[in-house]
Amino acid sequence: MKKYILILCCFLIIVSCNKNKKKVVEKSNIVKSIVVSKFNSSNNLIPKVNSDTLIIKSKCAIIYDQTEKNIEKRKKEIGEEKFYVGADDFLFYLNEANEYLESKEIKIITTENHKILKFVSDNKKVTIINLDLEKDMGGVYLFNSKQTPKKINIMDISDEFESYMK
Questions:
Q1: Which among 134, 140, 131 has a CA at the least distance from the CA of 102?
Q2: What are the 10-residue block averages of pLDDT along the chain, 166 residues in total?
Q3: Where are the domains of the chain?
Q4: pTM for the complete prediction?
């Protein structure tokens, strides 16, 4: 009888361990499939799993926001009231810029959790931008793979876009 109980316990342990391994494998496959579907090779973005770098190889507009750390630092530098007035103005112009870019049917990418932008031109020239070093609340970079990326003035989006993308 003890033998059967011991065998039964071993069997249950083995079965339960296998189920946990299957769950881990299933979860890792889900993450991979999300990454692949979100950043497939046809849109020329090459994501790095668990990386703060976004690699861009094709014509697009990159909209970036500041990190919480930089926002808090900026509030202390200029004061909370001035910060929120500036943030309100910035968001208005950013919305206008976003609408303009959508009307031009250019791919728009938001940085979300990325701190580093790595632009790769057709001639393999690489430009790296560290968003933590940006002083603005956020902004827009335009990229055409035939040129280096350009940070644009969102208050003058149409002229900036037309002069860069021609």
A1: 140
A2: 48 48 33 31 43 91 84 88 89 94 95 87 93 84 95 94 92
A3: 2-38, 43-165
A4: 0.66
